[in-house]
Each structure stands twice: as C-alpha cells, then as structure tokens.
Amino acid sequence: MSLASHALQRLLHLSPPRTRRLTVERDRPVTMRDGTVLLADRWIPSLGGDGLPTALLRSPYGRTGMIATQLARPLAERGYQVVVQSTRGTFGSGGDFDPLRREREDGLDTLDWLLARSWCGEGVVLFGGSYLGFVQWAVADAVPDRVRAILPSLSESAFTLEQLRTDGFSLEAPFGWGVQVAGQERQSSRLGQFLGAGKVRRAMTTLPLTDADSAVLGHPSPYFQNVLAHDADAPFWQPADHRARVSDITVPVSTVGGWYDIFLPGQLRDFQELQKAGRRTARLTVGPWSHISMGASAAATAEALDFALPLARGEQPEEKAAVRLYVMGEERWRDFASWPPPGYEPKRLRLHPGGVLSAEPPVSSAADGYTYDPADPTPAVGGVRMAVGVRAGRVDNRQLEAREDVLTYTTEALEQDAEVIGEVSAEIWFSSSLPYSDVFVRLCDVDEKGRSTNVCDGLVSLTGADTLSRAEVRLWPTAYRFRRGHRIRVQVSSGAFPRYNRNPGSGEPRATATALVPADQLVFHDPDHPSAVVLPVRRGD
C-alpha cells in the first residue's frame, strides 16, 4: 500500500509519515447494550500499536476502500492507532440501519468497549466528517475523560434537519443520500455512484416524490420515505437532534467546514454555542469548500495531527486563533477571535427599478415581474450542492441570469474594497398569483469582464404568497471581499432545483404532489416596500 500512502501524502499535503507499514486487524466484534454486535477494524503500525493514542471513526460507509483508507491510513502512519467501526446495520454490523436515530447509544457503548481494551491508549480522539462527524456530536457531552478531543468536520449536531424545513425543503441532499445508503453495499464503488448519478438526477423529477426513490433503486429508500413523512420538527427526528447538548460539551473541539457545505449554518450555530458556554478549547476552520472536498479533508487531517494528537498524549497543542477563515475574493486565510467576527455592521443594499442595487433609499416604482413554471424550474447552478457528478461552489452565473425567471440587481463599480464576513440575509417584498411560492435569493460578485460568480444564497417557501408580504430569506454565511472595480449583484427567483424541491404551486403535500401550476411573481422595491439584501460589512468599508 506504499502507493496509496504516497498519494495521500500529496493529496492531503502531509509531512512524511513515521511508517508506511501498517497492519489491519479485521472484524473485531463490539457488543451493544441490546446485544447487537457491530464490527470494527483496527489499524496499527506493523511494529506494534498498543498504547498509542486511539482515533475512533464510526461510519455507515464501510471499513474498506478509499474512504476508510483516506481517513485511517494517514493517522495510523503518524502516531495513532485507528479504530474504524461500521455503524448498526451496515457492512457486517448487526441490527437494522436506522439513520441518525441510534448513534448516541451505540457511540457511548462503543467508547465503553474501546476504553476497556488493554491496547487502547490513554488518549482517545473522535474523528471524521459528515455522518462521521454527526456521530461525534451525538455523544460529545457525555464522553469519558480519556476522550481528549472531537474533530467533526462538514457536519452538525442536528444532521440533515436543516434540509427538511417546512419553509424550504432541500431535495437533492436527502434524496441522493437516501438512495446512496440504500444501495451502497451492492454498488459501493465511486465509479458506480458516478455512472448512476444521471439516473438519480432524472429521478428527482418524478411525481409524486414518494415514487422517486423506487425509480432509481427499484424499491423505496427507508430514509427518504421518512424524510417525506416527517418534517424537521416532528418527534420522529428527536433522537437525531443533539442541539440542546452542545452547550454541555467540555471536551476540546476542532470543527472544519466549507462556505459551500450543506451543513455550514448548523455547524456555525454549534460553534457559537460552544463560544457562549466559554469553551476556549473550541476551534473553527472554514475554507472555500463544498461538502465533497479534498481541501476540507486535508484541513481536518491536519487538525487531527496538530491539535488532537498532542492532546491525546497529554501535551498542549500549538496556540492558535480560535477561528480561521478563508476570505474568498481576497483568496487568503485570516485569523479571528470569534464567529461572527467583531467589527462588521449590517449594511442594506436596496433593490431599485432598472435592475439597480444601491444603498440609497428606494424611489416610487412599479414592481418587477416574472413567471415561475415548475415544469421548467429555475435550475440550481453551483453553490451548496451534495451530489456526485455535479459542480458545486463558485461558478459562472451568466447563463442562469439570462433566464426570464431570474431577476438581477447590480451596484455600480465599487470605488473601494468591501469586505463581508458573517450572516447574510434578504428582505424581499413579494407577491404571487398563487398562495404557495418560493423566494430564492443569491449574492454574486461581478468582475470587470462581467462574469458573475455566486457567493452565497438561500430560499424560503411561503404560504399566503398571493398577499403582498415581506419574505425574510436567510442566506448562507460567508467571508468574501468584493474588490474595487467589481460590482455586487443580487439575484431573485423562485427556485434552485434540484437543490431545493420545486414548489408545485398547487399546495399539495410535497410527498404526493402531482400538479404543476405556473405562477406570476412580483418583486416590489418602493418606499413602502423596500426590498434589500443585508450584508455584514467591515466597519469603514
């Protein structure tokens, strides 16, 4: 496996390892409190690993292949022994896979088992991203003292619940993930997933949505069916919601996120809770990444080696700022004391007639209009995506902005740089010909050549949309420097499919809707209805 070792060293920007010779002890049984047996593999240096600090990874994606190798090998080569466990009902572990809802009990039972092994080191670290990060949040408030750090990347304590909001249902991520985990043990290769990506995308147009998973799998996905049956605030998801536990976490935390990751808002909320609780050992790193990102993996691995490994040895890691952010536009890493950073004040840029965006007060003007047709929904282009074969992050938006169902409002060329770091929102005065409609808002940077690049965005679903009202849209947080000579642009539309489910306009439940009704939309920007985007701008800019 020397080839894999060298490749990972380059991909993750790592220093040379202590050893490249590893031994993997397969299929160790771990018994849960109900008698169910889960399986785990132990990665150790071939010359012996007893007593080394232990990194625990709990995963629903298997214990072999590139995912396990990418996570376990770099740590086992550089001072850890690594235990990779398959979660309940996956890849040989007993029981039924009930995503998200059994991870607290199973995680705590696994820690009890691990700490009872004679070979387990005095210091234990929890590591991994996405679902592997969620399982850490699920137990973090109750871990034994020998757990010295948790490292949940691209994840949050209420995993996927943001996507199931009644006022903004995200289709692509829960559908794609539900299909993936339902079929992964039959088709586990990345190539297989890539080849099936087009079929998954086509299936998301299926009506009713209750049949969409069967269009891919030939049978329902239990997770996706639960997504359709239970909104985010339903009691069914309570075992998957660990937000209330975050303030009780005392173990050091280093969390890595991406500006275009689906879990970023919840991840920042969790970090803020740690800050409010006075946890000075909490660290946050956010880069210019989407959910599937080698850059985020590299940053997380660096934190495991530079931050957590010293703690696991009873030593102190190098002192660093609590918050490290990649400021896009400036294209540079910067350190801050907290999130959101101090010194940034809300600034309103208001929509004006003629596609103008300005800090000036609005003037009397007619509303701007467009037609949204769910049979030809406004597409998702770049941005916050989690799908195989789909480009995420920053992309050229000019083709999207040329559509008749997308309105744009743009400032004059900036006379000086404007730095935006923090929470972004919009207030759009809106009405529709139908009671049910969505408002999607995207912030963009337009360069001197006219290329429009997306910065952040968000969507809200409305009921009573046929009555003029103010739609409050929460966009993704960001850190972005708009350069002098560039222009700031705001898009307003009624969808970003399939990232968000298309609003059918009929008012039918999302699971069973079959009718697609076009809607005529109006966006207002007069003195009585001052539509605006609200940016956290650095004081003085």
Quick recap:
The protein has helices spanning 2-11, 65-76, 103-115, 131-137, 172-183, 190-195, 197-203, 212-217, 222-229, 264-276, 294-312, 398-401; strands at residues 22-31, 37-45, 54-59, 81-86, 124-129, 147-153, 164-165, 168-169, 253-260, 282-290, 323-327, 332-336, 344-352, 356-358, 368-372, 407-410, 418-422, 425-432, 436-446, 452-463, 469-474, 478-482, 487-493, 519-524, 532-538.
Blueprint (SSEs and pairs):
Layout: H1 2-11, E1 22-31, E2 37-45, E3 54-59, H2 65-76, E4 81-86, H3 103-115, E5 124-129, H4 131-137, E6 147-153, E7 164-165, E8 168-169, H5 172-183, H6 190-195, H7 197-203, H8 212-217, H9 222-229, E9 253-260, H10 264-276, E10 282-290, H11 294-312, E11 323-327, E12 332-336, E13 344-352, E14 356-358, E15 368-372, H12 398-401, E16 407-410, E17 418-422, E18 425-432, E19 436-446, E20 452-463, E21 469-474, E22 478-482, E23 487-493, E24 519-524, E25 532-538
Parallel strand pairs: 3-4, 3-5, 5-6, 9-10, 10-11
Antiparallel strand pairs: 1-2, 2-4, 7-8, 11-12, 13-14, 13-25, 15-24, 16-23, 17-22, 18-21, 18-24, 18-25, 19-20, 19-23
